[in-house]
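User: Hey, my collaborator sent me this sequence without any context and asked if I could get a structure. I don't really work with proteins. Can you help?
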Amino acid sequence: MKNVSLALVSVVSLTLLEEVRADPAVVEAVEARQFGSAWTFSVTLSHGDTGWDDYADGWRVTLEDGTLLGVRELLHPHVNEQPFTRTLTGIEIPDHVEEVFVEARTNLHGWGSARFGVPLNSD
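Assistant: No problem. I've predicted the 3D structure and written it out in structure-token form, which is a compact way to encode the shape of the chain:
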């Protein structure tokens, strides 16, 4: 009985450890600016990057229905730079759109479920 209890504690501990390590990348802030017919997005992300095994590796801009407008790939971990900001230019957005969404991704768990709404103001 003692071995079974110890095994159960080990499984629970490993599960909790994996949940802690499975933190999603978080969109902290977004700045959107229009230049002519295209938009530039500067997105600030935070994530518990641990190195090449688990890091925020991208973000994307979508319409409300999920239509993809642009993707910014992040090619390396940012262990010692948190939060960090990266920019993507040349995003074409239809004139009638008043809000877009930014979503973040990690190389370990893919796209997160959180969406950061960005109201567009072209004034």
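In plain terms: The radius of gyration is 18 Å. You can pass these tokens on to your collaborator as they are.
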